[in-house]
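Quick one, tokens below:
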């Protein structure tokens, strides 16, 4: 039964996707005498926590009830008072927790507070799923660096374009829709300047009721054309251009005049220092980034160790051609003992494409 109610809480938590960043997705369900009497989730950053919404939704007295919550109830006075206090005050009898909160302000303290006030606490119910739901938060709250997802669409033979550079579209419509919902869920979207020059993308989320990620263009010499949609269509989303001291000062000034934020980092192999960039973006509250290529930036990102997760859409097509682009290029590695190892790899079909997901072993 605990699993079943926790699953309900998980599904509620997911409704907040895209709106709570950089705070977590949290769901809560209140059960009394075998009946669900309250439910709630964290709906938007800065607003009420899941537990508060669940208690407010209850039509009967919650005293003596069990509360299921996907994340350890908070302990600190933040934008709202501590939920652990509220649960004690409302005389909740038992609290079932999905996963502990790694936030140093909360970790274990929320649970200790409940236990020391006589509340029965069970932890680790559907723990893996509860952690996966908040994989972004789990990294960001501890490191203050964004969680980076590298996404690629390719043919079965690993090509991302034909020899004449035609790339629209390799993956199917269902896959492309899935990517648009990911753009809604993550705070930032990052591409190399080559991609901007070649495809002139908008990098927005084209699904209804969605928000757009902040666009980040990595451009060490500031070659970005001033007519690019990411520069001219700023009412859709904010754009940040990351560059180095190799950029011409006049171009930096021109971009700034257009209202674009320009970040100048140190150089790494003559290019933007991606680790430094991640630190700067993390300090701005950007907790997650969708890396959408191209192949050169993909390799640099792997080499600098900023990638956490990979998502490859593999279409049932063979393109061929020695000169046709592949997903990850750059200098490549020399010895197999230095590969970027993927762990926890899974595969499912998404429409007609094979969708492969996994995590970079650290
Ligand atoms: C949420 N929603 O449902 C729960 C959270 O900035 P505050 O005051 O809203 O506090 C955010 C912290 O509260 C967050 O980092 C996490 O540790 C804890 N739990 N946060 O936004 C919730 N339960
Ligand atoms: Zn709380």
């Amino acid at each position: 039964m605990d699993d079943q109610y926790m699953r309900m809480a998980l599904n509620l938590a997911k409704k907040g996707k895209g709106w709570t960043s950089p705070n977590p997705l949290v769901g809560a369900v209140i059960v009394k005498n075998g009946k669900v009497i309250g439910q709630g989730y964290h709906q938007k950053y800065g607003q009420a926590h899941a537990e508060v919404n669940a208690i407010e939704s209850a039509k009967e007295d919650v005293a003596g009830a069990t509360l299921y919550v996907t994340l350890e109830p908070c302990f600190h006075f933040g934008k709202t008072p501590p939920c652990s206090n509220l649960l004690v005050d409302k005389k909740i009898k038992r609290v079932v927790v999905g996963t502990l909160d790694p936030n140093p302000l909360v970790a274990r303290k929320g649970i200790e507070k409940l236990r020391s006030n006589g509340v029965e606490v069970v932890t680790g119910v559907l723990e893996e799923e509860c952690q996966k739901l908040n994989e972004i938060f789990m990294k960001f709250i501890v490191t203050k660096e964004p969680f980076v997802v590298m996404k690629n669409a390719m043919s079965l033979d690993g090509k991302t374009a034909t020899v004449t550079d035609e790339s629209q579209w390799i993956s199917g419509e269902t896959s492309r829709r899935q990517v648009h919902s990911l753009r809604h869920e993550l705070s930032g979207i990052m591409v190399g300047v080559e991609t901007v020059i070649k495809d002139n993308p908008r990098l927005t989320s084209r699904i209804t009721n969605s928000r757009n990620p902040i666009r980040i263009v990595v451009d060490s010499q500031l070659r970005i054309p001033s007519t690019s949609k990411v520069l001219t269509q700023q009412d859709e989303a904010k754009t940040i251009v990351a560059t180095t001291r190799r950029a011409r000062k006049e171009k930096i000034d021109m971009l700034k005049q257009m209202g674009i934020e320009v970040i100048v980092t140190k150089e790494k192999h003559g290019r933007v220092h991606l680790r430094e960039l991640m630190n700067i973006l993390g300090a701005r509250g950007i907790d997650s980034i969708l890396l959408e290529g191209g192949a050169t930036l993909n390799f640099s990102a792997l080499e600098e160790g900023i990638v956490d997760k990979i998502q490859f859409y593999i279409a049932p097509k063979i393109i061929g051609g020695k000169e046709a682009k592949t997903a990850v290029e750059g200098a490549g590695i020399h010895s197999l003992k230095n590969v970027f190892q993927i762990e926890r790899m899974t595969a499912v079909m998404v429409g007609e494409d094979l969708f492969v997901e996994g995590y970079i072993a650290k």
